[in-house]
Design brief:
Chain lengths: 229, 224
Amino acid sequence: MNEQGWLPRGPLGWVVPPMMIGALYMAFLFAPTEATMGDVQRIFYFHVPSAWAAFLAFAVVFVASIQWLRTKQPRWDAMAVSAAEVGIVFCSIALVTGSIWAKPIWGTWWDWDPRLTTTLILWLIYVSYLMLRTSVENPARRASLSAVVGIVGFIDVPVVFMSIRWWRTIHPVLLSASGFDMAPSMVATLMVCLVAFTLLFVHLLRLRISLELQREEVHRLRDQILYEE
Amino acid sequence: MRSYLDKVLAIVGKDVASELRTREVLSSMFVFAVLVIVVFNFAFELNVENNEAVAPGVLWVAIIFAGMLGLNRSFISEKDRGCMEGLLLCPVDRSAIYVGKMLGNLLFMLTMEAIVLPIFAAFFNLSVFDPKLLLVVLLGTIGFAAVGTLFAAVAVHTRTREVMLPILLLPVAVPVLVAAVKATGEAIARTPPSTPGPWLGVLVGFDVIFLTVAYLTFEYVFQE
């Protein structure tokens, strides 16, 4: 165990903070101001990576849930709940930053566009996933029940997206047939932010998993002491 | 195959027999669905102009909310009466229990709809005996019962049972609701759209995907 509690944990603990500072520098100072939208557009460098990290997190929930049902090893359940929690944080950031951007650009906080709606429903599915977990006592049963919800919820994502797609979409499309539709320095900034947020996600996920495993260990030790006396 | 079908039908038969003796689920579903339609009438001030726009949504909210009552009862009554152990001890595949329970719930919801639809038609001055509308109602109800039965089996193991089901089910069931409302709107429109939307396909796709997923995962939910 790490004796110096203030030291960063693991190699990522040393890599992620400078990466995030670099991402901030590039988003606010390096990237040029967008011609029509102005400085508001800079929120995009945090909005897109957050949404990406959220989808990545929910994919991790899906895979870890399947692995739990197959192997019944507690670390997979710890990974699933950790990814769901971290994913909800990134999903909330994506929803909030998107709304802040949309108000001056679209003139409204919200639009029932496929991507926005799908993200909101994802957020609701994983909030219900965490609520389910707080409502079941037995750890093995909690893991199995929430794994099923984690699997069904993730499979639902493309179905939700397709079913809402018929509406006209006003969400900007980044990738056109000719590659990225942006200035090269903007693409570079977006790439750095994507890498930084991905590493941040992996780091948070690892910290949260170790916390979950320690919590289980504490419960086990407590039960051991209680029932031995 | 033949014996699997017999097992499924035995579970459906058990649910139907217990419902025929108590009549508690169907009657409450029916009254609740009618109440939802009446309450929406006041909430939206329905009239001839907005009829076509609002009616499909009212119908499906009524079906989904009433259906949730039935889904909740289907496993909670098993648990409260100590029948869960009996079902678990049955020498049948767990998936047969899922299929039987799902068909039972589907049957109750369709029975409820058979009574509610004519009332809905009378209130909104519509014709319900349109084969396309009946097909939409059937497909939407199958999808809802498929994922609803799975989540009802999840919710019964939690501390907050009745509350947990809508929280789990509603976000996942959004595609069914969207597709069913749109398809219903097309079916009851006085001037049908020249190019019908992809809604029947969406409903079929949802039904197939979620019947398969629920069939495969049910054994992990229904334990001990």
